[in-house]
Each structure stands twice: as C-alpha cells, then as structure tokens.
Amino acid sequence: MALRELGQQERDSAREKALAARGARAQMKREFGDGRVSFAQVLQRADAEEAIARLKCTELLEALPGVGRVTAVKICEQLGISVNRRLGGLGVKQRAALTEHLKSYA
Q1: Could you give the dihedral angle defined by the CA atoms of residues 13, 15, 17 and 20, in that order, rounded to the nearest 10 degrees?
Q2: Pick from 87, 106, 84, 103: which is nearest to 95 by CA?
Q3: What is the residue range of 32's domain?
Q4: Which of 29, 33, 45, 50 is surrounded by the fewest CB atoms within 10 Å?
C-alpha cells in the first residue's frame, strides 16, 4: 500500500513536530546527566509525553557521566532489557531494576 503524498503544510508541520521532539529528548538527557532530574522523574515524563517515551534506554544511560555506549549496553543486558527498548516500553520489573541500578550513580 502506497503512502499518500503530503502537502507542503503537512510536511512543515511534521518537521516542526519532529524538531520539537528531538529537542525535548536532548534536554531530558542533559538534565538527567547533570543530575537535575531523577530517573523517577524521567519515567513520569515518559508516561506523560510521547517524545520522552520514545527515548531509548541506552541513550538515556549514555547521558550519565562515565557511561558510554558499551557500558550502557552492558547495563541493559545485565538487567534483562533489550538494547532497543524505549522508556515508554519498559515493564514494571524493568523500571524497578533500572531504578535500583541507577541508585549507585546518585
């Protein structure tokens, strides 16, 4: 099934929405990495905002000082979280495990 052609106004609207979502995710990563926002607050925002819910767990972990791509992947694997999992898709047990693990970074 072919997608319909979008008009210029629809493309512009989609572009602005995507730019706002990227900005919101980038700001959340900065605030989390600086310690201004706790992981519990990140999860609350993920429940309320689609843009934050679509942030990958590994990307959020990489925002922490001293945590790179390899370490973020190892953390997710240790906790039984897929490296492609997004914040909005975390289950109750995964949220609890990640919350407990992140206490050591506080």
Answers
A1: -140
A2: 87
A3: 10-105
A4: 50
Report the number of distinct structural domains present in the chain: 1
1 falls within a domain: no
The C-alpha atoms of residue 23 and residue 51 are separated, in whole angstroms, by 9
At residue 79's C-alpha, the angle toward residues 89 and 50, to 5°, is 20
Whether 3 is covered by a domain: the verdict is no
pLDDT digits (tens, 9 = 90+) for 10-61: 999 999 999 999 999 999 999 999 999 999 999 999 999 999 999 999 999 9
Give residue 100's pLDDT: 94
Interatomic CA distance for residues 99 and 93, integer angstroms: 10
Residue located via tokens 């052609």: 5
